[in-house]
Amino acid sequence: MTAMATSLRPDTGSRKGAAVTFDGAAVRLRGRTIWSDVSLTVAEAAFVAVLGPNGAGKSTLIKAILGLLPLAAGTASVLGRQPGVAKGRIGYLPQRHGFDSGTRIRGVDLVQLGLDGTRWGIPLPGSPSRKRDAARVAEVIELVGATTYARRPIGELSGGEQQRLLIAQALVRRPRLLLLDEPLDSLDLPNQAAVAALVRRICEEEQVAVLLVAHDINPIIGYLDRVIYLAGGGAIEGAPEEVITSETLSRLYGAPIEVLHASDSRLVVVGQPEAPFVHGDRHA
Amino acid sequence: MFAHEFMRNALIAGSFVGLACGLVGYFVVLRAQVFAGDALSHVAFTGGLAAAVLGLNILAGVFAATILGGIVMGLLGDKARADDVTIGSLFAWTLGLGVLFLTIFTTQDSAGNGTAGVRVLFGSIFGLSAADVRTSVVLAVLACAILLAIARPLLFASLDNAVAAAQGVPVRVLGLGFLALLGLVAAQATQAVGALLLLGLLAAPAGAAHRLTANPYRGLLLSALFSVGSIWIGLTLSYAFPTLPPSSMIIAAAVGIYLLALATTIPRARAVWPRPANANVAA
Questions:
Q1: Domains and CATH numbers, chain A
Q2: Where in the sequence is the domain holding B248, given as residue range(s)?
Q3: Contact B164 A117 (CB under 8 A)
Q4: What is the rounded CA–CA span in Å between residue B109 and residue B100?
């Protein structure tokens, strides 16, 4: 597979309605401007990666969309509303470490909690709502391909298996927007690609827009519609092959940046002003 | 053995205390807060003796101290999950204070109740009055009702704090409330098995339940059954062999159940999920 060839997808951004729109947005944390003048559009059912060096404000962007952080300037619309209003229609997977190996709760219970975890009391067996919930839980576990191990204790599963069940949990309420903060972080390269393929499929089958924060674009580039690249206090949004270029990234960083095409078709970004950050270097 | 009032009182109060310990213990194990339970047991000792020094009801002192201790631990600890350093500091300071109260009490109280220290440390389940039983039952039922009411969001928050918070679960309030509830139940267990041994009643039946099932609601039920069972077995043994103290028999039964659970799950884990060579890491 050549990553660049398969990544050429039609621009879905302009034709469909928007899941997320930012216009001249800025976020300030403790007096420091994290990013400013950010304008972007995430189309419905689009798969968008959020990239950029550490500290560029990738998780901040997710929190701004969730309405957990206020905008210091500009406007934002999430599923047609102010950020924070449409909470029930957003699935969110925060940046996290795996479950402790001693956690003896089944994956299926974890997914179920995504559906009813905010309700008080304990579920009564045999009630009609319980059966309806169980059917939806089974359906979404099937969708992420976790049926064979969903009844094993979550602590005994591999990182990739846990990640699939967490995605199922985020999906179980049929959200219109899925925010995944570094879901690939603890996975090996084949598992990163497999989870990206799964997310691509979910976008299409469930018609849900996905923002996925990632460190390394290489294992996922073939599955993406769009890329949001955060750096130098700003952001650029566009198709991957438009954004990950020497010209665009140099303009964003305000410093000469070179995007190299390695012989194995990986993209390598060099010349960043801060600590050397190379796409793919964590697995090289 | 049901002919004796002290035995009936012990069985009734013990059953309800065991039920509360089993339910709360399940979450203590899940949230890895066994150490917090340990700290609260020392808070119970100090609270009981402080009440004795002040001439107040010892049990009231134990309750006030453990509930307050749970809330303080929650407030000091990061994100309402009391951390080791916080608990360790609180725990040593409280125990020191307890020793101070014990010294004051034993020097000032020459006439009467010199056994208060021993009773708080090792429990006095055979010495319960009818009024004590009523108090125990009411408080245990209250603790169980609160726990069952918050069980599902608490389970969510224990497994996945950030996701639960994003979905609107009040994780901080729940964490604090749970530690206060743990304080209430620790005080009850102090009566049954004493401050030194209450940890066993919180941790061992719940640990066995976690071993035997990964279904959380079934686990809660099992944990409660094991805890009540431990109390019954312990009291029966102690009645049959009067030289055996009830608290140590209750804990022996609880630990016995835990060991049985360990013994039955390790071979099963191997059979269901065979792993190469290092299969002893299973479960």
A1: 1-86+176-255 (3.40.50.300), 103-171 (no CATH)
A2: 5-281
A3: yes
A4: 14
